[in-house]
Recover the amino acids of this structure.
């Protein structure tokens, strides 16, 4: 499955558009990660635990996107956009959504 942020795939024509699809992942950050992230905000630096969690959420969202595309019979997803949100009473939940257009590409010329 080709997944790309571009609206086309180099050297391939889009044969059919199957529709807009989305994959989402919502993860909760635990209180200890939140506390250490708050300390990092004050003293500076990167929060490796949040980066790991965001990476997991991004991977889950892209896998869901690919699964949905596969169910539709697509062989590619174009125009993929990744969005990140934090929400919840104390912003303790993180959501990553991946949205794109499922398409069928014409076969490669041989």
């Amino acid at each position: 499955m080709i997944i790309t942020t571009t609206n086309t795939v180099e050297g391939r024509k889009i044969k059919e558009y199957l529709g807009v699809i989305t994959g989402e992942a919502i993860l909760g950050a635990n209180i200890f990660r939140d506390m250490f992230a708050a300390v990092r905000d004050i003293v500076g630096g990167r929060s490796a635990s949040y980066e790991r969690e965001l990476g997991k959420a991004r991977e889950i969202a892209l896998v869901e996107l690919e699964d949905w595309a596969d169910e539709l019979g697509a062989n590619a997803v174009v125009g993929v956009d990744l969005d990140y949100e934090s929400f919840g009473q104390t912003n303790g939940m993180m959501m990553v959504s991946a949205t794109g257009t499922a398409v069928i590409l014409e076969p490669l010329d041989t």
